[in-house]
Predict the 3D structure of the following.
Amino acid sequence: MFSRAVSRLRNTKRLLSTVSSQIPGTRTSKLPNGLTIASEYIPNTSSATVGIFVDAGSRAENIKNNGTAHFLEHLAFKGTQNRSQQGIELEIENIGSHLNAYTSRENTVYYAKSLQEDIPKAVEILSDILTKSVLDSNAIERERDVIIRESEEVDKMYDEVVFDHLHEITYKDQPLGRTILGPIKNIKSITRSDLKNYITKNYKGDRMVLAGAGAVDHEKLVEHAQKYFGHVPKSESPVPLGSPRGPLPVFYRGEKLIEEKTLPTTHVAIALEGVSWSAPDYFVALATQAIVGNWDRAIGTGTNSPSPLAVSASQNGPLANSYMSFSTSYADSGLWGMYIVTDSNEHNVKLIVDEILKEWKRIKSGKISDTEVNRAKAQLKAALLLSLDGSTAIVEDIGRQVVTTGKRLSPEEVFEQVDKITKDDIIMWANYRLQNKPVSMVALGNTSTVPKVSYIEEKLNQ
């Protein structure tokens, strides 16, 4: 699989060098109300995706209204001042479009995929559902039950549970520490007034990006933006996209063991403070993550893996069901670490944690090869290209980058950044980020063999 990805990467690099002069990259404009329009024309296509990205998610909430942004997303398609719920669905179907939305900790996103001639209609519908939702009382009550059921389903997704608790203890009593759905008590009590207040406070022109990709004419997209989003008010004190909107998050040391011995598997997340989207060492963090890598015993690889950690995990037992290195970024903070899944009855969690710490220390000590570094860089570039498959994926990339950093790096620019990474950069990064820094950890399942955070810090700092 890796060789195929690298082969595709080489072919795509040749393609990029051949046609880059013919492709106009990402163009950006700004309306008087601060709304940013960013688009990328893709030749030889007759469809496009347009999306509106709002610089507000669960992080823009407080402890009392946590869950409001996600609640609003559910109500967006339930009727506007101009269309009923059935009217929205019928109009989208009549033009063969696809409409979707999601909420994250930092953003709310609505997007539509349509034919080129229907782009104006898609932008108009996005504006309608975003700015003119009626927030009908009956719809609120119906969606309240739907969201409660969704929350119950999320509670069955062990990785979601672990990472929510990891955020809770790491960003204690801070907006990033809250969940996207909010606690059940909030879901049950959120009112129409809460929803309207969230819109009034956060849905501002300077906090929005209209992104487009595919058969998109940038000048026409700007015209559509002015026509359908020009009325959105501007913040009283606008802050440029990518700039902090409040105090920087504090990363707290902590641990939380959730004993559930009936679970067949035990789930553990260990994190140190990572990097923000715009951090100068963002790509170094990703390269270091790639060196550590992922492993799953179900796939059957390990003994022949180029990763020393994968070899140790597979040969000695195996020591776990799987592990996954992660680097999660936010506008001004991040989490970097490892997510582990073990068999609750078979595995001693401490053994796999020891091997992970040994791998982190190996990187810190400089005992990594140029081959490992080059492989990690190739994996990064291949992953980038594979993630930009289609206009919707490109819109996601454009919108996310512009709303979180204020600009968009093209694939060619990302390649340049990644190619500059050296072995010394990775060693220096690991010694700065993984030495004498607070650690947070959450475990769910049979936690009897999970080591304490104090043990992890002591071993890591030796």
